[in-house]
Every structure is written in structure tokens, then in C-alpha cells.
Amino acid sequence: SHSYFHYDSKSNWSCRSLLDAAQRYKWAIHPDFRFLLEKAGIQPGVEDFPANNIILRYLESELREAFSANDESRLLISIKEIFKWGGTTNRNSETADALRAAPTLSIYLQLCHRAFGNTAALNLTTFDKSKLRSNAGFTKVYSLFFDNFIIYDSRVAAALGILITRFCIKNKIRTIPKNLELVWMGARHVDSHPDLRRNPSLRYKTNSGLCELAFPIKSSDRTHIKSNMYANWLLASAINDDPRPKLNVFITSYGGNALRALEAALFMIGYDLNRAVLQIEQRGFRRLLHNKDKNS
Q: What is the torsion angle, in degrees rounded to the nearest 10, for the CA atoms of residue 161, residue 273, residue 156 and residue 132?
């Protein structure tokens, strides 16, 4: 189970499982997108996963069609609409304006495809050379432009981190394996809610030294895209490589939207880790200190 106090709604939020978290998903819908919900017959005020997924499907269609038509004006509008939905307009819209002029957004997205659009590979040389962007805003664009690409923001990163921490404790692993060393990011509104915790790291001093389950903080767009890609592979594998798909609750509940629903569940869980970290400290982590090391 997982719980926290949601500062904006001034209420407690909790879930019993990942599936329960997806079913309790909520994201405020910008007024500009409410016409889509009206067309779908959804009541005003509904802001759950199905409602937001209708908007994301629309934005995905607009983005891909604009790219196929090589329509730069429509492409810019589509990207800014995605920022609007995700609440990441600040600075990202200005970056999109600049990318359109250097040289075009279509070429930029082609470079993205070359660097990380193929989910089986990550070309950091192309990423660096082309000065590609990766942050909580642009990950939303990429998630709609490419298949099997999740939104990797501070909340999803926090949730994945705490799940990895629990995995390490369960398997008596004392340090985070390199391929699971995902970067974390601070909350965007940390100034108004300073108690929010998105850092899933745990550090303890023992008689034999420092015991760490530590995740690095995002230091650049390069570290963000690397973690985003690792997260893509991890979650896509959980959905697409399940040997018993009929027993996978996300597949049976959400079908072709299973990966997006799993991402939504992580988004809800990652709002605040304070109670989760306290629970781990009290129940699991201390026991790890007395067990023999296991190779990571």
C-alpha cells in the first residue's frame, strides 16, 4: 500500500496496488481540452485516466499527422498543446520556438528518432551532437511521438525509485544496480510544498561504513534521456514480455493502453515518498544491514 497527503486538494490519497493507483489517477484538465470530453459524453469535472487518455490520443494524432504532413506551423501548435496539457509550458514553449528555427521541428524529431526513437537503442553521441532536449516537458512530446515511450517526470521517477529500493531490500542488494540507477528530480512546486519528497534514496551508517541505496539527481538532459530510456525498457518489458498476459491485470484491464496506465499508476504514487520511505526504514531497511551482501 502507499499513501500521502495531497497538498493541492488538501486530502489524503492512498492505493492498495499499482492497479488501484491507476484507477485512482487524477490530473486536472485544461479548459481548452474539455470540448473533447463533451464530444465523448464525459461529464464535466471528470479528470480520471480514461478522460485524460482521450486527450492524449487526440494530441498524439495531431502531432503525428502534423509531422507526416511536414506542416511546421501545425507541428509547433501540437507540441505546445502537449505542454499545455502537461502543465510544462514555461520555457519549453520558448525552446520549441527556437527549435523550429534551427532548422525545423521536423528535422529535430528525425534526429530524436535517430538518437532514441528506436526503443531498442540509445545513441548518446547523436543526442549530444544534435543538442537534443529531454526534461519533464519534452518527455511528454516524445511519449506521444514514439511507441512504447513513457512520460518520465519527477513523480514517475520517484515511484520507480521506491519500487527499485524495495526490490533491492527484498533481494538483499546493498547498492542500486547500475542499470537501475535512474535519476530523480525535485518537485516543481517545492517552494510552496517544501515537505514533498521525490528522492527515493536511502543512506544508513553502520559499524562497517556507509550503506547506500542511492539514486543520482538529474544533472543534465543527457542523464534524463538515459533514465527515460531505461524506464521505457523496464515498463515495456513488464507489459509486452509477460509470459502470461491473461494474468497481467494491466493488460486485462486496459488492453492497448496498459503501458500508459502503468505510467499513470506510477505518476500517482510518486507525488510524495515520505510515508513510503518511513515504512521502509521501520520494516525493511534495518533488516538488510544484518544480512550478508548479495552481488548486484
A: -80
Q: CB–CB of 15/1 below 8 Å?
A: yes
pTM: 0.92
Angle at 131 between CA 125 and CA 227, to 5 degrees: 65
> Would you call 71 helix, strand, or coil by DSSP?
coil
129 membership: H or E segment, kind and range: helix 124-129
Q: Residue 209 — φ and ψ, nearest 5°?
A: 130, -160
Residue 24 zone, left/alpha/beta (φ > 0; ψ -120 to 50; rest) = alpha
Q: What is the DSSP code (8-state) at residue 128?
A: H
Strand locations in 131-284 (E): 202-206, 209-213
What type of residue sits at position 235? L
Interstrand relation of 209-213 and 2-6 (parallel, antiparallel or unpaired)? unpaired
Half-sphere exposure of 244 (CA within 13 A, CB side): 3
User: How many CA atoms lie less than 13 Å away from 112 in the CB half-sphere?
Assistant: 23
Q: What is the distance between the alpha carbons of residues 124 and 116, in angstroms, rounded to a whole number?
A: 8
Counted residue by residue, the chain has a size of 296
User: How far is the C-alpha of 50 from the C-alpha of 44, rounded, in Å?
Assistant: 13
**Mind listing the pLDDT tens digit for each residue in 252-264?**
999 999 999 999 9
Cβ proximity of 5 and 249 under 8 Å: no
Q: What's the gap between Cα 279 and its chain centre?
A: 23
Among 195, 199, 153, 196, which residue's Cα sits nearest to residue 176? 199
The predicted pLDDT at position 295 comes to: 44
Q: Phi/psi of residue 3, each to 5°?
A: -155, 160
> What's the pLDDT tens digit per position in 204-230?
665 566 668 999 999 999 999 999 999
**Cα separations (Å) of 186 from 2, 110, 270?**
19, 30, 11
